C-alpha cells in the first residue's frame, strides 16, 4: 500500500485554480501532474509534470489518470466519456463524471434543481432560432447550455430589438430575477460524507465587463439568511453525492427568498477569500475531500474582501503590472498574480485579498486598490 507521501495527484486544467490546488498539494509533499493545452500554464510553475493536451483528448486524459492515484479538475469542459470509462476500471476521480455531466450542461443543472425541489428561477428550454415565439415577457435571461463561464454564455434580452443579438447556440430562457444581492457559499464534502459550509459571501459584478468584481466575506445579511443558504447549499451537494469543494451561487430576492443560480463542481473564484480569511483555504480543503482526510475548519478568522485583477481595456500582449508598491503599502493587502504570460481585456490575471477587523474598512481599502493596481501589457506601456 502506498504511503501518503507517495500519492500522485492529477489535475485536469492548469489555470489559476489548478495552480492554487497544486501549491497546497506541494505543501503536503505530494507529487502533482497537470494536463493543460498551454505549455507554460500557471500551474506548470508548481507541478512536478505537465501533459500538454486539449481537455477533450481521450488518450492524453487516460495517460494522466493512469499515472495518478487521485484525479480532480479545475474546469468543467472536459470529455466525461473517458472519465466514466476509467472510473469503471477503479480509478479515483473526484468529483465523479456523473456530477460533471450534470453541471457542465446548465439545462441539466436546472433539471437537477427541479428534481430535488431546490429553489431556483423559472426556466424553459428553447429553440434559439425562434425566440420571438418563446418569450412571455421582458426582460428575460438567455443562457447557453454549455461552454459559458465568467459571464460568457449569458445574455439579458431586455426588449424585442435585443432578440437579433441572441446567443446562437443550444440554450434556455430563465426568469429575470430582480435580486437584492448575489450570494455564494462554498461547500466541502469528503469521501466519507463529512460536510461543512464556509461563510456566506456577497458577490458584486461589473455590469460593463459582466464579471465578478468583488467578494465580501461575510455577507452583510441576517443570520436567518445564512442558515437558509447553508441548508440549500448542503442539499445541492448531498443530492449530487459530490466529493470535493463546490461553489453554490445564489440570488437573494427582494422578498428575502434564496434561489440557486448555478453550481460549480470545483474550487471557485468566490472562495478565494479563504486563503487569507479562513482557517482552511478552499484549496487545501479540496485536497482533504478527494483524499478522504478529515475536513479542516471553515471558520472565518477576519472579515475579508477580494477583488479580481482584470486585464485593462484595449490591452493585449505581454503581461505587466503597475501600482504594486503602492498597493502593498496598504495594511492587510495580499496580491496573488496567476502567472499568465499574455494579457487580454478583462482576462483574470490575479486577485487581491484585503483583510480588516471591520468589513467596511476592508471595502474602503478594496476600492483604493481597484484604482491603484492595474494589469497592463508591456507593449501598451512602451507606447505611452
TrEMBL record:
Family annotation (InterPro entries): ATP-grasp, ATP-grasp_carboxylate-amine, ATP_grasp_subdomain_1, PreATP-grasp_dom_sf, PurK, PurK_C, PurT/PurK_preATP-grasp, Rudment_hybrid_motif
GO MF term set: 5-(carboxyamino)imidazole ribonucleotide synthase activity; ATP binding; metal ion binding; phosphoribosylaminoimidazole carboxylase activity
Domain of life: Bacteria
PROSITE patterns found in the cross-reference section: ATP_GRASP
GO cellular component: cytosol
Recorded catalytic activity of this chain's protein: 5-amino-1-(5-phospho-beta-D-ribosyl)imidazole + hydrogencarbonate + ATP = 5-carboxyamino-1-(5-phospho-D-ribosyl)imidazole + ADP + phosphate + 2 H(+)
Chain sites annotated for binding ATP: 106, 143, 174-177, 182, 261-262
Stretches assigned to coiled coil: none
Keyword vocabulary terms for this entry: ATP-binding, Decarboxylase, Ligase, Lyase, Nucleotide-binding, Purine biosynthesis
Domain ATP-grasp: 110-291
Entry EC number(s): 6.3.4.18
Pathway recorded for this protein: Purine metabolism; IMP biosynthesis via de novo pathway; 5-amino-1-(5-phospho-D-ribosyl)imidazole-4-carboxylate from 5-amino-1-(5-phospho-D-ribosyl)imidazole (N5-CAIR route): step 1/2
GO biological process assignments: 'de novo' IMP biosynthetic process
Pfam families documented for this protein: ATP-grasp, PurK_C, RS_preATP-grasp-like
HAMAP family: PurK
Functional summary from the UniProt entry: Catalyzes the ATP-dependent conversion of 5-aminoimidazole ribonucleotide (AIR) and HCO(3)- to N5-carboxyaminoimidazole ribonucleotide (N5-CAIR). Catalyzes the ATP-dependent conversion of 5-aminoimidazole ribonucleotide (AIR) and HCO(3)(-) to N5-carboxyaminoimidazole ribonucleotide (N5-CAIR).
Subunit (UniProt): Homodimer.
Recorded family membership: Belongs to the PurK/PurT family.
Name the record gives this protein: N5-carboxyaminoimidazole ribonucleotide synthase
Organism: Maledivibacter halophilus
